[in-house]
Amino acid sequence: MANSLHTRTETVLRRLVRRDATSQVRKVLAKSRPEDVAAALEHMTRSERQRLFPMLGDRETAAEVMVNLSEGALRDVLASVGSGLIVELLERMEPDDATDVIEALPEELRAAVLSDLRGEDTEELSVLMSWPSDTAGGIMSTSFFSMPEASTCGQAIEQIQSKGEDFDSLFYVYVLDGQGRLVGVVSLRQLLTNPPNTPLVSVMTREVITVGPKQDQEEVARYVARYDLLAIPVVDEHQRQLGIVTVDDVVDVIREEAVEDMMLLVGINDDAAHGKGIFALVKDRAGWLLATIGGGVLSSELIGSFEQTLMAVAVLAGFIPVIMGMGGNVGLQSATITVRGIATGHVQLGGALAYIWRETRVGVVMGLLFAVVLGGYGLVRYLDQPLIGVSVGISVCLAIIVASLFGTTVPVVLSLIGVDPALATGPFVTTASDITGIIIYLGVATVLLQI
Amino acid sequence: MANSLHTRTETVLRRLVRRDATSQVRKVLAKSRPEDVAAALEHMTRSERQRLFPMLGDRETAAEVMVNLSEGALRDVLASVGSGLIVELLERMEPDDATDVIEALPEELRAAVLSDLRGEDTEELSVLMSWPSDTAGGIMSTSFFSMPEASTCGQAIEQIQSKGEDFDSLFYVYVLDGQGRLVGVVSLRQLLTNPPNTPLVSVMTREVITVGPKQDQEEVARYVARYDLLAIPVVDEHQRQLGIVTVDDVVDVIREEAVEDMMLLVGINDDAAHGKGIFALVKDRAGWLLATIGGGVLSSELIGSFEQTLMAVAVLAGFIPVIMGMGGNVGLQSATITVRGIATGHVQLGGALAYIWRETRVGVVMGLLFAVVLGGYGLVRYLDQPLIGVSVGISVCLAIIVASLFGTTVPVVLSLIGVDPALATGPFVTTASDITGIIIYLGVATVLLQI
Questions:
Q1: Residue A307 with chain B: CB contacts under 8 Å
Q2: Last-in-domain residue among B81, B104, B139
Q3: Is residue A263 part of a domain?
Q4: Looking at CB atoms within 10 Å, which of A378, B8, B167, B399 has the fewest?
């Protein structure tokens, strides 16, 4: 059965490549699915990747493997093969896959490769490459199966029988009018279950869900997911069909975007961590940590400015970390919910005020709850100085409310001004929550304890 | 164009329901796609949901809307309709969708509904319900199109023409032997592009990628994504086909699981935040915060136990938050990468030691880097007491290394003992990193400054 086979392929290939067992590697490659070879490459180091890829004898398979690689692995592999081979492989790919490879090429190689490609390919490629890679236009396939309005089901079937092999993804028949405008869609099943002489126009769905070429890929993915589509047509402003985005590309988009958001929230710039060097990994993660250091130095100065308060009541210092921690964690929770909500469309910028208001009420309830818990502990622990417990209770409550306000407002504002909310939210919200937490706590304590 | 239509439907429906404009609501509903009605319900409060749903006149549409609801919205809607209507709607659903609805029913209603369902339905439902809802068996559809081994392409087409309407998802023809064992698969396109008298066995793909009914839905999703499948067959241990999992269900699984992991990492138990009450939302998020309080109280005691050190050199207190913060953030980053790595299969438990070793080296590099940055700042800021800077530098380095060790090891260990690594990682790793950070820092300072 194939299930267990695929992980086996990965493990076996890695072991053999490490042992430099070339002839055995070739044997395994000959029996492996390209997707599994690609997965094996993902788990390898740069030099292992560059040794394994050239052992793929068959061009067709090599192209198929390349198409399944992540950006990091792709770059490594491309660096090890000549431009002649790259051109040969590109000619075996679907245009939308080919553009991804071309975009991963180093600048100097790209021009050489593009000029070596045959005429008809380049035209299609340059159309695709004119759209940003994270839009419908950037991920669409320009090879789709269409029929003129006047055709019958039988004629469509005949066309598929003679030309069907040319289409990588044949899920629907798109019905176009004389101007190339999309007027309807017919499923393969509808073709088969209607008599051959049925006109397409009498069975087609007229209310076709479409996207424009500039639409963000996340939005495209949302349509495909919501309406359970296998492919969604991309049309221009005159409703002329430019291409289709297929569900397998949408699956990739959904996986990438969710992980990307998650990583960005904890300040990691690139998910393609596997197969990278140590220093590249540190670089991906250092941004948030530098912000933490910056915020931390500011906090240490702030705490220092309350030196008198702390000298007078030394135990106050003990509660600084927990108040900061509560603020930071509440802020991160609110930010995570809000960033996901914006990404999935649950939080709409039009209804942002209502959303912020609701989250603020959640913050108030949590603030009161934890004020009782932590303030109560402070009271009992330092019975002789009840104002310590009171200060702690008031501060943790305010810190939580402020943090949930930050966590909801920051992503909404970022999104309104056109910045990816996942990008700046994590570091900004936690640092801001930390600092306001300290000011609130030491300020409240100084006033209450009259120091 | 449909693009803008769908958000319009949502907004319009919400406004009309709030205004109680019943006749207008009915008009909008009559022209809306069920998926858009479902999306509108997602954004509503419980009482709005319960007013809107019964206005769906047509049973077919109501069933279709119900199938597209999230669990929270589904429960609200179910609470407002009688068991008679529920049975009618269930009879209009695919078995795999029906089981989801039945599982969302309150216990007392479930028995009544199950006993009212007609015989043939219940048999199929009870098979599906015997598998856990997050396995291949739990999400599969038992209606798939198959042909006996001896058939030709033409015979398969004839079967589709006469019975195709019965199958909700017809992407492939599964070829079964006399014992119901899956021996191959043929795509619809292959059927059409081969002469009618071609035997299926001569065109079918024999190496079919299959899953077992107990396989985790995340793993199923990974197969479908990797091999770009439209549906994956579910087979028992004798290779007999039980059902198929279709790509649209896989899209839902991928979306849910990624979000679930992300939420769990910041200690949020349930993503279905939209449409919940304030107190339910607080409950979802309180767990991590209680852990933070617990860790915080412990930290405050620890800091208190170093009172002498802090009294002697008060400015030491100022660095506690930043050292804790660095540890906490590094721990959360490592944990996020590891949890995602385990979920996507990039981190395999067999290679866990190599992975932990690599991440530890990343931790060492980051530790040294930030030791120089923060220790350097401490040296310059308190030039007269250089040992403060040295203590800060050493401590931040150690705290970062320990935190990245926690962040990688905890999820791996949880996963090894069969606990979902996303579940306990966030609170555990941040709390543990905080506490060890304090001990390291105040310990190092006490020793170095000889207090």
A1: 314-315
A2: B139
A3: no
A4: B8
Q: What is the CATH number of the domain that holds B316?
A: 1.10.357.20
Instruction: Kindly state whether B332 is in contact with chain A, defined as any CB-CB distance less than 8 angstroms.
Output: yes
Stated length of chain B? 451
Instruction: Report CB contact under 8 Å: B365, A279.
Output: yes
- State whether B71 and B181 are in the same domain: no
Are A85 and A184 contained in the same domain?
A: no
Position B121 pLDDT exceeds 60? yes
Pairing of strands B182-187, B172-176: antiparallel
Q: Name residues whose C-beta falls within 8 Å of residue A179's C-beta, 6 or more positions apart in sequence.
A: A238, A240
For residues B188 and B306, membership in a common domain is answered with: no
pLDDT at position A91: 87
Task: Please report the beta strands in A83-181, taking only residues with DSSP state E, as ranges in sequence order.
Answer: 146-148, 172-176
The distance of A300 to chain B (nearest Cα, Å) reads 4
pLDDT in tens, A90-109: 988 888 888 889 888 888 88
Q: Is B378 part of any domain? A: yes
Tell me how many domains chain A contains: 3
- Would A205 be classed as within a structural domain? yes
- Residues from chain A that touch B230, judged by Cβ atoms under 8 A, are 171, 230, 247
> Both B134 and B157 in a single domain?
no
More confident: B399 or A133 = B399
Which CATH number does the domain housing residue B50 bear?
1.25.60.10
pLDDT of B371 over the 80 cut: yes
Q: Does the model's ipTM exceed the 0.85 cut?
A: no
B22 SS3 class: helix
- Choice between B355 and A427, residue whose per-residue pLDDT is larger: B355
The helix, strand and coil proportions of chain B, stated in percent and rounded to the nearest 5, come to: 70, 10, 20
pLDDT tens profile B212-269: 999 999 889 989 988 989 999 999 999 999 999 999 989 988 888 877 877 877 778 7
Regions of chain A where pLDDT drops below 70: 1-7, 119-121, 164-165, 168, 270-276, 344-345, 348-350, 424
Residue A265 lies in a domain: no
Helices (H), B91-182: 95-104, 107-116, 119-129, 136-139, 153-163
- Residue-by-residue DSSP string for A279-347: HHHHHHHHHHHHHHHHHHHHHHHHHHHTHHHHHHSTTHHHHHHHHHHHHHHHHHHHHHHHHHHHHHTSS
Using a CB-CB cut-off of 8 Å, the residues of chain B touching A161 are 192-193
Which of B89, B109, B139 corresponds to the end of one domain?
Answer: B139
Cβ distance of B273 and A430 shorter than 8 Å: no
Residues A152 and A17 in one domain: no
Average the pLDDT over B436-447 and give the result. 91
Which range of residues forms the domain containing residue A306? 278-448
Q: Among B193, B211, B304, whose Cβ lies nearest the Cβ of A315?
A: B304
Contact of B173 with chain A, judged by CB distance below 8 Å, is answered with no
How many residues in total does chain A contain? 451
Q: What is the pLDDT of residue B232?
A: 96
Residue B43 Cα, gap to closest chain A Cα (Å): 7
Both B53 and B27 in one domain: the answer is yes
Cα separation, B42 vs B44, whole angstroms: 6
**CATH at residue B157:** 3.10.580.10
Q: What average pLDDT score do residues B317-332 get?
A: 88
Helix (H, G, I), strand (E, B) or coil at A231: strand
Same domain for B187 and B106 = no
Tokens 């959904």 -> residue? A254
Contacting residues of B for A250, CB less than 8 Å apart: 251
What SS3 class is residue B57? coil
Record: contact B329-A226, CB cut-off 8 A: no
**Has this prediction a pTM greater than 0.90?**
no
The reply to whether A165 and A123 lie within a common domain is no
Q: Is A324 on the interface with B (CB under 8 A)?
A: yes
As a whole number, mean pLDDT of residues B264-277 equals 67
